[in-house]
Design a protein that fits this description.
alpha/beta; five-stranded mixed beta sheet; 6 helices; 44% helix
């Protein structure tokens, strides 16, 4: 049972994501975990665990996981995400609450049936926003000046998906990041106006 809001009890099943055996040599000690919140749906737990296991095959995810673990536990779950947070014409595939303790990664439940966006979005949220925002806050950065947080997250998600042989969603934006900062900001402003 987890207490939420004004005395409302919400029953949640949490599953600890056991690190794949291939990571045992890289992470020999007990380090903060990724928790899976499955909303009482074992199929969600299995799908999230499989995606986290798949991330273990990415050299970039392995390096970023070392940094993420220094920040503490993260909770990953599916949720119904509102489109109101997205720029016109786009949909919200994931959301990260980096001010929560532990950090909460929410993936739109529509990703449960998407084969190509799921892993990229998980990497984008967990190793992008879930890493750069808490690290920046810890370093005392002005959180209002973190527009580059989206560029970092897009690039991380794209790179990890590419390493894993997955299709990527936002190649035009990632290409702009690779070209120059000015090209990235022009692309983001163009797509959001």
């Amino acid at each position: 049972q987890v207490q939420a809001g004004a005395g409302f009890c919400l029953s949640l099943l949490l599953a600890v994501w056991p690190a794949p055996s291939s990571w045992a040599k890289t992470y020999p000690s007990a380090i903060p975990l990724i928790l899976i919140e499955d909303r009482g749906r074992p199929s969600e737990r299995r799908q999230l665990r499989a995606a986290l296991d798949k991330l273990a095959g990415s050299p970039t995810a392995q390096r970023l996981e070392k940094r993420r673990r220094r920040l503490g536990t993260a909770v990953v779950s599916f949720a119904v995400l509102s489109a109101s947070a997205a720029p016109l014409g786009e949909r919200v595939l994931g959301s990260t609450d980096s001010s929560a303790d532990p950090v909460r990664i929410l993936l739109d439940e529509r990703l449960r049936i998407s084969t190509h966006a799921f892993v990229e979005t998980l990497a984008h949220e967990l190793y992008g926003h879930g890493l750069i925002l808490p690290e920046s806050r810890k370093a005392g950065a002005d959180m209002g000046l973190l527009m580059e947080n989206e560029a970092f997250s897009l690039t991380v998600g794209d790179l990890i998906a590419t390493e894993l042989g997955e299709k990527t969603l936002q190649q035009d934006v990632v290409d702009a990041v690779m070209e120059s900062t000015a090209a990235y900001y022009a692309q983001r402003l163009f797509t959001q106006s």
